[in-house]
Design brief:
about 220 residues, alpha/beta, Rossmann fold, 7-stranded mixed sheet, about 35% helix, binds S-adenosylmethionine
């Protein structure tokens, strides 16, 4: 598999993609389910929200978000992986208000509507910084005024201060872009694009974070 960004850890091979949800459950010793439920609850989804999911993966998150939506809500998932597309369509087949688009999130793109929320879960860390900035701009462009960008990802932390039983798996399993991401000030990064009214929720001993940032009503 030829990667768009050779050092990226979020461009997954077909085998990992096919077993992604199971691997997350195993690697987190069964804690992933409770964690993702909590994070999605913390997004404060409203019944009629239109949600755009960047790098949506298997649809596991979309199915959870659908629990908060009425039949007027809607989720569009964007991903480049065919293995993820198959799973998303299967997992979300019971939800007519979901769609999957095979679409890159790292280049400028147009969709025919604006969204109340853009969600991105464990994707942003896996890109070089200048490409992360393209993704943030894409989120801003696709939000309605007053809409929120919901980034679920690694928090800011000092890798060397981690206990060895967290540090070793992180160092072995994550890509170099992730090591750079955890040292950056995400709030400052988002402010540079015009986002404000930040809310943060921390999980997994403060190593993971949901950052909610608002697109101002007037921008
Ligand atoms: C680590 S997985 C996370 C999946 C999902 N967000 C979740 O939390 O379960 C990263 C996802 O980003 C997708 N991805 C990687 N690069 C992408 C790109 N340039 N455009 C769109 N999706 C991308 C991958 O195919 C994969 O599904």
């Amino acid at each position: 598999m030829k990667k768009l960004y050779p050092e990226s850890g979020v461009e997954l091979n077909p085998f990992i993609s096919k077993h992604y949800d199971t691997l997350m459950n195993l690697l987190s010793f069964g804690k992933y389910k409770g964690f993702i439920h909590r994070a999605i609850k913390d997004m404060q989804i409203q019944k009629e929200d239109a949600i755009l999911d960047f790098g949506c993966g298997t649809g596991r998150n979309a199915c959870l978000m659908m629990q908060y939506l009425s039949d007027k809500g809607f989720i569009t998932g964007l991903d480049i992986s065919e293995a993820m597309e198959v799973q998303f369509k299967k997992n979300c087949s019971r939800y007519p208000n979901t769609e999957f688009l095979n679409h890159r999130i790292d280049l400028p793109f147009q969709l025919d509507k604006k969204y109340d929320k853009v969600f991105i879960s464990f994707v942003l860390h896996g890109f070089p910084q200048n490409i992360r900035e393209n993704i943030i701009q894409n989120a801003f462009n696709h939000l309605k005024p007053g809409g929120t960008f919901n980034i679920l990802d690694f928090a800011e932390f000092d890798m060397n201060a981690m206990p060895f039983y967290y540090r070793i798996p992180f160092q072995k399993g994550e890509c170099p872009y992730a090591f750079d991401f955890i040292e950056r000030d995400l709030k400052q990064m988002l402010s540079g694009f015009g986002f404000d009214d930040f809310k943060e929720h921390l999980y997994f001993k403060k190593y993971a974070r949901l950052m909610v940032a608002r697109k101002p009503e007037k921008s």
